[in-house]
Amino acid sequence: MSGARKWLGSEIDVFPLYFGTGDGAPSLFFRPFKAVARLAARLIKVKPKGASHGNVSDRPPAPLYSLLFAIWAIAVALDKKHKLATAQRAIARGFVVIADRYPQDENSRFNDGPLLHRLTWVPGWLRQLEMSVYSAARCAAPDLIIKLRVGPDAVAKREPDMRHDVILQRVAWFDDLTFHGASVVTIDGARPLPEVTQIARRAIWAVL
């Protein structure tokens, strides 16, 4: 995202946003939740059934884990809601918004999808609150989605803690994501970086 921002920034007004929960810079609102999540991840040695990273058991989530996960899911949703509103304000002011990752409800099992479906005890109104955020993202679909596709080996190097069967499944799911009919350009991440950059720039210019 930083490369695209620098490239476009010399020509037009660019507004960058990070919708993920990983290594990108968190918002002020989300920062304390992310810090607590990192601490909990270090303290919880064995993850419950359904987790994708680390040592995973076949047991369902315990009550404390479920409570922490529910708080995390709502914090994630509210953070995305705030960023969606921020993106719309930036667009109204004439900015080109470049987002790293984007919320989707097409496949809730991975890749910035809703989370509360993993818990059985969550009340319906809380599920509706979470889903309303992802529905809003679908209604405000981006003009362009660039999917950088990499193989399982590359994912394993980046996510050494992720189980291999989960990696294989997510690669397959990633290929199937259409973002509800948005304009999608898929780029092979194994190609040389200059080629990847050139393809991405051409796709961006085509929608400006």
UniProtKB/TrEMBL annotation:
InterPro entries: P-loop_NTPase. Gene3D superfamilies: P-loop containing nucleotide triphosphate hydrolases. This is Thymidylate kinase.
